[in-house]
Amino acid sequence: MKTKYLITAIAVISTLILSGCGGGDSTKSTTSAEELVAPPVQEVQATGGFNSPVKIPSGVSFTLSAPASFKPGKFAAGQLPGNRNQQFKVDITNGSTAAVDLTTLIIIGTSSNGNCVDIFDGDNGMEGAPQELLAVGKSISFNWGLSCSGKTGEELSLVLSNEGEAIIKVTGKVA
Fold first, then answer.
1. What is the pLDDT of residue 112?
2. Residues in the chain with pLDDT < 50?
C-alpha cells in the first residue's frame, strides 16, 4: 500500500514540475527580424577591398575575391526571392606563430539596402567555414555565398569574424 502512495506522489510531483516547463511569458517580443541578423558593431583589425590581401597584426592574411552573381543549385539554402546571389572565394594564409581555428568563421554582408543572408550550396562548393585548424605557414581556399538585397553596382560590405571577434572589413560593389 505504501508503494502505491509513493508512486502516486511521484507522479503528481512530476506532473507539477513538468507543467512549468516550456511555458512562455505573456509579454510579446519586440525584437524584429532585422535586429536578429544585424551584424555586431565592432572595430575590425584591418580593412581593404576585394581581390587584395588584407593582413591582420597576428600575420594572418585574408583575400576575398570580388563577388560574382551565380545561380544556386537545386538543394541550396538561404537564397531569398528578389535578392542578388553573390559568390566569392576566400583565401586565408596563416603567417602567424600559431594554428588558426576557423570553425567559427562567419562572413557578415551588408548592402546599401540591408543585411545579407548566407547561402549554403554544395553544388557550388559553399559549405560554410572549414572544420580543421589552419597550421602555421599553410593556406586554405573555399567558396562563400550570400543573398543580398540591392542592385548591381551598389555598395557591399563584408565583415569577416572569427571566434566572436570582427577581423577584417572588405568593401566593394554588388555584382
1. 87
2. 3, 5-6, 9, 12, 16, 18-19, 23, 26, 29, 33, 36, 39
Note the pLDDT tens digit of each residue in 114-144: 999 999 999 999 999 999 999 999 999 999 9
Q: What is the set of domains in the chain, with CATH numbers? A: 44-173 (2.60.40.1240)
DSSP state of 122: G
* Alpha carbon of residue 138 to chain centroid: 23
> Quick one: the chain helix, strand, coil %, rounded to 5?
15, 40, 45
Q: 75 by DSSP, 3-state: which?
A: coil
Q: What is the DSSP secondary-structure string of 12-70?
A: HHHHHHHHTTT---SSPP---HHHHHPPP----SEEEETTS-EE-TTSEEEEEPPPEE-
For residue 32, what is its C-alpha cell? 524584429
Measure Cα distances from 154 to 42, 64, 65, 173 in Å.
23, 18, 17, 5
Distance CA 108, CA 62 (A): 15
Pairing verdict, β 165-173 and 46-49? parallel
Reference 148, options 65, 68, 51, 94; nearest CA is: 68
